[in-house]
User: What shape does this take?
Amino acid sequence: MPLLEAITGKRLWRGLHVPEHKDETAHLAIRRMPFPPLLVVPLSQHNGAPAVPIVREGQEIVRGEPIAKAGGFVSVPMHAPATGRVQRIALAPSAKGELTEAIYIVPYESASQEVLYGMPQDIEKMTPEEIVLAVQETGVVGLGGAAFPTHVKLKVPAGRTIDTVVVNGCECEPYLTADHRVMLEQPAEVLHGARVAMRALGAQHTVIGVEDNKMDAVAALKQANGNATDITVEAVPTKYPQGAEKMLVKVLLNREIPSAGLPAEVGLAVFNVATLAQIGDLLPSRRGLIERVVTIAGPGVTKPGNYLVALGTPLRWALQQAGCTANVTSVILGGPMMGTATGSLDVPLTKGVTGILVLTDEDAGPIHPCIKCAACVEACPMQLNPSRLGLLARKERYEEMAAEFHLMDCFECGCCSYVCPSNIPLVQYFRVAKQMNRERKARA
Amino acid sequence: MTTGVMNDLLVAAILMGGIGVILAAVLAIADKKLYVWEDPRIDQVEALLPLANCGACGCAGCHAFAEKAVKGEIAPGKCTVNSAEGIAAVAALLKVAAGGDEKRVARLACAGGAHVARQKAQYEGLPSCRAAALVNGGGKGCSWGCLGLADCARVCSFNAIQMDVHGLPVVNETLCTACGDCVDVCPKALFSLHVVSHRLWVACKSQLQGDTAEAECEVACTACGRCAADAPAGLIQIVNNLAVVNYSKNGLATKTPIERCPTGAIVWLDAKQGAVKGVEAKKITRKSPLPVALADLPVMRTAEGPRVN
Assistant: This one.
């Protein structure tokens, strides 16, 4: 096959075909999840400065009302996910492990999921700067998992021009179908969000890339777009990690984002479909992000599906609603390739959680020595040498990994670990190496 | 024919010999012209150093320390790894005072071994604290606590750290040279360097309060404030629900503040008896790890490919 690909020129990057496991949830419409008895809204659900609470203990709040303001430009406000009362502002467990400040909210028993907060605003009359501020006001961050504040990406960096907006509808992680459902059920909002992004960035064109295992989503977007020419919808080959920014841009536009660079350097801005759908939905009525679609799937779930979950819902409640089998061994936030295992079911669901994967598998088995088969080298979409990097990591030669073997180009897609016949947790080694390098740099 | 071969051999021998002589001359001149005089005492001092190249003195290795010592920029006693005799020998050689500070050692701000601290999840993956800490904090109930996977013991060049039966590192103060490697490697930043005369020690970093702190760990600081109340003014303060000793007032320190501590989180590090808890500290008799509720215990593994099948 590689030879054929080499001749036809279709092989643009390496990567893998992994079992998709999307059938169990892809056909299920998005369902609302009831409010839990206690919501825990962390002040830091995004990259950047934490939000600053503007409510006090005991205060009554209305669903959709701002409860924390942005702590700087690279920060977003938080909004009340339910009508109720602020119980306290205290430390709460987070997906990263350490405890972070959070606002605890007790929803009223009669609280409805209807959002009454908000007022209409005319986006057409806004300048690009006003759009950036309005998007910050919605509290929207990258909903594909990175949770980077979206309004920051809507500001054109000094000295650059953005000609094209790229919309990422690949959702290449196995099991996850949240973005797929969003494209099917909210195609108009996705397109509206894309047009808002184009206006803010001064871009003339938008390309939406969707993996070709979701042709129904392509059709839905095309139908909603009608004859408009500013947005094109393209099906891209299904291959992991197609949803990685660099891979998608290469396939769609044949542009290469430089090492350690941003898409803006090649005139692009990349957004996830769910992010744009939220902007398209919230911005016209000046509301805030208070819920998101989360795929709950995996062999340990009795009612898998895509749930519209209020932000701050504890994992335990979400799993109770979806139902778990008795033999659950681990719970992953995100997809199976890049997600992180959680050690506590008290962790609240935040803006960056794309899915909850409940697994029932046996332990991973022993780690064997590297046999230098180069399966990882074949798989790495960034064309790194994970085998060599892994050996250096074992010897704790972290600086050498970054300086000579491009460690920082690794975006932890997990392909190398997936194919390794010796079961070497390569990505875990690389995460440790990156962390050590960051700390050493900070100390120096 | 034979004369031809002889001629060739002769030419080759003369050529090689000539090149040899010229190069030898170049080397001889270079040796004189480019000679750098180095104080012979640098090598003598270096020979008296432990040659661990640990960096505890702040120099880039033992040779750099020897250079500085000869120049008089650093006192021989600043090498914390050297024996007392070694320091005296260096001082005698350089005819300076031994100098140096009081002996410092690494101390661990956690007493939550497996017999007292709750485990919230079971970690599977690389057996290293660094790696575990990146997977949702590492599975320990207390998110500040020692993960017990012995990164510090492995990084210690002096074999001064051993893991005890409860999975906590124990620092051997005689072997510890305060090089700081354990301080840098601990992902929870539990180690810090202290002079041995700092006797009052809070073996906890939990910022939780009261029962919430105690629910995670039997020996956690619950921020009750008794030690702060019993200590001379300003010696102990409660900061972020944690007792913090102000070592700039270490001269005032006595054993009194530890006596009423209900959990024994604050201890008196006695030179002979080790960590001494107060009389009111609850007695920990359990030797085995705390039992865990399996239903509530997800296994934590890094999400990496092999589990998709």
